[in-house]
Design a protein that fits this description.
mainly alpha, three-stranded antiparallel beta sheet, 3 strands, elongated
């Protein structure tokens, strides 16, 4: 019998060509959005039945999800969605700070003037959200900013890794209202980063971005 609740949580199968990729996108979206919550057990059989497909592509998708850390597998016992802990949130914020700094460094070496101005406009939205202590808008603006920098990095391997990890980052921070440091501290970091970007100083811009996250060499205390 098809699990109707799981079927509703998954929704329609994602568009695409490779079936295992489509299953991966469908299941990961359900996990990241919270439609399939942490701790819920899933199985290749139940997912395959809910999507109306064979179990082989589902197994392949679950292997990718396990590698990312979105699900955990105990052989012959269970497969379940991982739960977000405080330590995971902290680690995710640290990881994001390091990777975002790298994205900025790579993008600044390759962006043209138009792309730079677009990036600065996104940063301005981050500054406005930070000044207002609006955690939700800041997170959304920051994801757009880092996503743009990743696309502008010109490094396919880096972009692929960032795309894969972005799912775990989004899930781990989805319900987090964490704001790093005070509005004054964040504002100083962002404005110094903005100034460095406008004069083309990639090293300084990266340093200020990492300082805002409290990571990397010369990180400031919050």
């Amino acid at each position: 019998m098809v699990d109707s609740q799981l079927q509703e949580s998954l929704g329609p199968l994602a568009a695409g060509t490779v079936l295992s990729d489509r299953v991966f996108e469908t299941v990961s979206d359900a996990i990241v959005s919270g439609r399939i919550p942490g701790g819920q057990q899933v199985s290749d059989k139940s997912i395959a039945e809910a999507l109306g497909i064979s179990r082989t592509p589902v197994r392949e998708a679950l292997q990718r999800l396990a590698w990312l850390g979105l699900v955990e597998v105990s052989p012959n016992r269970y497969t379940r969605v991982t739960e977000v802990t405080d330590e995971m949130v902290s680690s995710t914020l640290e990881y994001t700070g390091m990777q975002a700094g790298m994205a900025l460094q790579l993008a600044m070496r390759r962006m043209d003037d138009a792309a730079l101005q677009e990036a600065v406009a996104m940063l301005d939205r981050m500054i406005a959200a930070s000044d207002a202590d609006d955690a939700d808008d800041l997170m959304l603006a920051a994801r757009m900013f880092v996503g743009f920098l990743t696309r502008e990095s010109g490094n396919r391997l880096f972009a692929t890794v960032m795309h894969e990890s972005s799912l775990l980052v989004a899930r781990n921070l989805r319900q987090s209202s964490t704001l790093i440091g005070t509005a004054t501290f964040r504002g100083e970091c962002y404005r110094q980063m903005r100034a460095a970007m406008l004069i083309g100083d990639a090293d300084a811009a990266e340093l200020w971005f990492r300082r805002q996250h409290g990571v990397g060499a010369g990180a400031l205390s919050v």
